[in-house]
Amino acid sequence: MTNMNMTAPNCDQPEPAFYSRWGDKYPWILLLIGIGLSLPIVILYWTHYNMPLEPQMAPTGFIHSDIPYYIAIARQYSDGVANGIFYPNPYDIALDSPRVYFQPLFYLWGLILSISPIDPGLLLTFSTIITTVLAFMLLGHLYFTYALRLQHNFHFFCLIFLAWGGGALALLGAGYSLFSGLPLDFFHFDSEKGWWFLNLGRNFSYPTEAFYHLITILIYFCALTNRRRALLMLVFLMAISHPFTGVQYALIVFAWLLTERYIFKQKGISLWNHLTGLFIVTGTLIYYLWFLPSFDAHRSLMQQWSLDWHLEIATILGAYGIVALFALSRCMQANGFKLILGVPFNRFLLVCFIVSFGLANHELFIPPKQPVHFTRGHIWLPLCLLALPAISRALFNLRKKMGKPVGTGLIIVACLLLLSDNISFYYHCYTNRTGLSIQKSHKAALEFIAGNLNPPTSLIFISNDLYLSFLSATYLPVLPLVGHWPTTPYQHLRLRQAKEIIKEGKIAPELGNRSFLFAITPNNAGFPLRSQSRLVMQNQDPSLFLYPRRALTHRP
């Protein structure tokens, strides 16, 4: 039991916590931490599969509308379309579509799909949960290694807040709704109803972001423990995994190494460290900003990505205001900023915040390329780590001033408020239908094609149901004329061509020598090319037609 007469600890003096020794000696404690912190994600996927649906619908395992695209990429490996480790855009119908993309996570998923009949949705569900448990285990290790002289009573809360804390977006949204006379909306200021993941924990809802944030936590851990070679290897892994986050951490680590050597005169940072960091930065920028745009199809994608998706001032204040104020209060204490700058990892955190915040607001300086992509918890996490000692001190002083019974009650209320963003987000997800579902008849049609026909990988899939067209590349080795809108080259052209073919029977000259598989729904829908096509399946919705007749052959 804590002595209530003791003075508040000096939170700016680092001290190895005995919890970290537990982690080294008893790794099962970290496993329990990882499993416990992952429960919101496990429940999210459980509710996705078990939430009641209309009788004709079935869950897919895809928690967000972008996610089928990632399986379509993985299929490029399992279907033998990729050239070694390099894959083409699964929505580029050109026969000479360049094989110039590579992401290690999709390569791993492709290998699993090639050796296992696992459902793609289940693959991503298991991948997400396993990655999340590992990431939270490492986050626990990071926290207890970095743990300052915090009051031990608050270690539990500080770790939960690091994993699942947020800001005041839900409270601001509720307050705005109340005073405006509008229906209650916790997400009024939280972009895309929270799906831009402005704090850390929420990112683990998303399969790819779970992987990227596992790498992120590893980068933080290597920066904390001075494992610079491993740090640079992880930055390289991030750079080849995601364009936005890759550029972000390449710039962060390169800038940090420069400041450590030339401003803070830190020993042990070799010239090779700088050259490696410079190589990763320049290589990442050349690949994403020069090499890929040299291909017409990718250049069209970049034009589609040039969207001014940025954070409003109210969102910035609501998402980061609380942790920023606590971090600032830590700096304003006697010699606080000097003490913070005296620790290399704190300087890393400051560089993380400055670079991430600058990139997330780059529309102020250059034409915007979806600035909000640079948020994803990467602004919140360094601020939170800097703020935790001040938060712990505030809780300690509150309980000391108010007495244990009242102080403990106020601390519980404060904890709920600090977790309110994610409490409201997951309550909404658990009580409403989250993720994609598919009509059972459409899923049966896709399974029929996969199990009874030999669709060549050059076959173009067209449907008057754009959602079915999008999902076709996820479940079949085909090329949808219209796929995922941000990653379909010449999206507006393809939409017009699909409409002309289905409504008018008019095939563009550039598509004249290609073969098509049409999925027309409902069965009695008009289809001008019906008489020129071979009926493949009609006994359920949709009807499947082959044009011209020779393109598909039945398997023996």
Commentary on this structure:
By secondary structure, this protein is mostly helical. It folds into two domains: 18-34 and 129-431, no CATH class; 439-547, no CATH class. Helix content is 57%, strand content 5%. 45% of the residues are buried. The model is unreliable at 1-19 (pLDDT under 50).
Fold topology:
Layout: H1 18-25, H2 27-50, E1 57-59, H3 68-78, H4 104-115, H5 120-146, H6 155-164, H7 169-180, H8 207-224, H9 228-239, H10 243-262, H11 271-291, H12 296-305, H13 313-332, H14 336-341, H15 344-360, H16 380-402, H17 404-418, H18 420-431, E2 437-439, H19 440-452, E3 460-463, H20 466-475, E4 479-480, H21 491-504, E5 516-520, E6 534-537, E7 543-547
Parallel strand pairs: 3-4, 3-5
Antiparallel strand pairs: 1-2, 5-7, 6-7
Helix pairs in contact: 1-2, 1-5, 2-5, 2-18, 3-4, 3-20, 5-8, 8-9, 9-10, 9-11, 10-11, 10-15, 13-16, 15-16, 16-17
Rg, rounded, reads 26 Å
In sequence order, what are the helices and strands, one letter per element?
HHEHHHHHHHHHHHHHHHHEHEHEHEEE
Number of structurally distinct domains = 2
Strand order of the largest sheet: 4-3-5-7-6
* Mass-distribution shape: globular
Q: By helix and strand content, what is the structural category?
A: mainly alpha
The percentage of residues in β strands lies in under 5%
Number of helices: 21
What is the helix fraction of residues, given as a range? 55-70%
Mean of pLDDT: 89
Give a count of the beta strands, DSSP E runs of length 2 or more. 7
In whole angstroms, the N-to-C terminal distance is: 75 Å
Taking pLDDT < 50 over at least 5 consecutive residues as the criterion, the unreliable ranges are 1-19
Main pleated sheet? 5 strands, mixed
